[in-house]
């Protein structure tokens, strides 16, 4: 174990630093946060350090590992510094992942003469070797895929991810961009990413059975089409029948309650499907099968207030903007956690995925957050609102991107 001290001296111990980073990561330490706290590097640079360490010290099949073990000893003998190891890693990743042996052979070739070049010369040489290797490899078949989320997130959004051959997707993107630009020339008030969505939607529907994409109003007017993409709920009302309903001049239907009050069917549905409360599942024999709290998300006002107070993600060491983060129940909703400001924190999507699986978050009396891993280790967040202003936060976001 080497002491993480002077930065320049640390980088000169290339393979030793890689082994240190990999050992810390294997023991469950948040190495990315540790590196950005102790060294003058950005979050993106810390991620490159971690990836380089994993490539030099992580598991590999036996044949590739034998080549890499020789490369590691060569790094140690030639005292290759860490910056060069990072650059070599970038070069080797340009060889397709399925050709691991060629990757490791390229890494060893670059390490052998790494100290003879500066970083720019090393990159140029690596690019030349990479092109030569790729020309000898068979062109892989790219399998086209389309994945989409089954459920909407807390903000009512769904996601689609498309992968496919470069030429095919490039033609698709070009077609979408051309239509979006044409729309933008007519109305420049909408952002381009939104216009691209509308362009894709128009292309799909004009080529199919519909002449135009369905808006939210279209969904209301044509609920049969909506059933293809949205959940439907059946509301049973055994106490009602057609004879008990009263039609008004606008076509709305009403019924009288036991105390004489009139309730519309839309109000009745709203009461049945409140955005908070309890849901009871009753079986065919009229027995209660389950009782669940109805999911309820934080309101935009609650998230806005918490964003202003937090500035950045609540996880210790994370500098991602709270404005681009997810609302998180400190006490989970499924464990009767309330949806109020005392139980709200903003977590970026990366840190949010760790909640409940590898860590939990608690708010302290002074407004900070305590990050507790399942192994019992704890870390305290900063009071970011005292450390950041608009300019410094913008610089952090630019460095991360």
What does this structure look like?
By secondary structure, the protein is an alpha+beta fold. It is built from 17 helices and twelve strands. It has four domains: 7-136, no CATH class; 157-226, no CATH class; 242-293, no CATH class; 300-400, no CATH class. A three-stranded antiparallel beta sheet has the order 3-4-5. A three-stranded antiparallel beta sheet has the order 10-11-12, with no helix packed on it. Helix 3 packs across helix 4. The radius of gyration is 29 Å and the shape is extended. Mean pLDDT is 77; it is low at 1-8, 208-214 and 223-230.
Report, as a whole number of angstroms, the end-to-end distance: 32 Å
Number of continuous helical runs: 17
The radius of gyration computed from the alpha-carbon positions, rounded to a whole number of angstroms, is: 29 Å
Give me the secondary-structure category.
Answer: alpha+beta
Low-confidence stretches: 1-8, 208-214, 223-230
Strand content: 5-15%
What composes the largest sheet?
3 strands, antiparallel
Strand order of the largest sheet: 3-4-5
Say how many strands there are. Answer: 12
Please provide the ordered H/E string of secondary-structure elements.
HHHHHHHHEEHHHHEEEHEEHEEHEEEHH
Question: What is the molecular shape?
Answer: extended
Helix content: 40-55%
Average of the residue pLDDT scores: 77
What is the total number of structural domains?
4
């Amino acid at each position: 174990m080497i002491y993480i001290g002077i930065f320049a001296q640390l980088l000169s111990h290339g393979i030793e630093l890689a082994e240190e980073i990999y050992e810390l990561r294997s023991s469950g330490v948040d190495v990315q946060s540790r590196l950005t706290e102790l060294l003058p590097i950005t979050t993106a640079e810390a991620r490159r350090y971690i990836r380089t360490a994993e490539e030099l010290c992580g598991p590999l099949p036996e044949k590739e590992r034998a080549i890499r073990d020789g490369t590691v000893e060569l790094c140690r003998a030639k005292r290759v510094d860490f910056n060069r190891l990072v650059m070599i890693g970038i070069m080797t990743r340009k060889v397709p992942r399925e050709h691991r042996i060629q990757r490791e052979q390229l890494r060893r070739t670059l390490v052998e003469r790494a100290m003879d070049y500066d970083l720019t010369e090393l990159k140029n040489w690596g690019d030349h070797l990479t092109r030569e290797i790729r020309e000898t490899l068979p062109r892989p078949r790219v399998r086209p895929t389309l994945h989409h989320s089954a459920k909407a997130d807390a903000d009512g959004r769904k996601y689609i991810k498309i992968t496919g051959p470069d030429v095919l997707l490039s033609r698709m993107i070009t077609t979408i961009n051309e239509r979006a630009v044409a729309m933008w020339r007519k109305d420049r008030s909408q952002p381009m990413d939104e216009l691209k969505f509308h362009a894709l939607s128009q292309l799909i529907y004009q080529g199919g059975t519909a002449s135009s994409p369905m808006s939210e109003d279209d969904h209301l007017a044509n609920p049969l089409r909506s059933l293809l993409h949205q959940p439907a709920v059946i509301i049973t009302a055994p106490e009602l029948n057609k004879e008990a309903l009263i039609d008004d001049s606008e076509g709305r239907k009403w019924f009288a309650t036991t105390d004489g009050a009139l309730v519309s069917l839309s109000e009745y549905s709203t009461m049945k499907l409140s955005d908070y409360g309890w849901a009871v599942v009753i079986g065919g024999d009229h027995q209660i099968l389950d009782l669940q709290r109805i999911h309820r998300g934080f309101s935009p006002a609650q998230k806005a207030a918490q964003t202003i107070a937090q500035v950045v993600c609540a996880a210790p060491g994370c500098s991602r903007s709270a404005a681009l983060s997810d609302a998180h129940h400190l006490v989970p909703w499924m464990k009767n956690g309330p949806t109020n400001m005392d139980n709200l924190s903003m977590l970026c999507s990366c840190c949010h995925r760790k909640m409940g699986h590898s860590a939990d978050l608690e708010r302290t009396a002074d407004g900070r957050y305590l990050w507790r891993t399942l192994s019992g280790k704890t870390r305290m967040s900063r009071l970011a609102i005292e450390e950041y202003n608009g300019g410094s936060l913008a610089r952090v976001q630019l460095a991360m991107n």
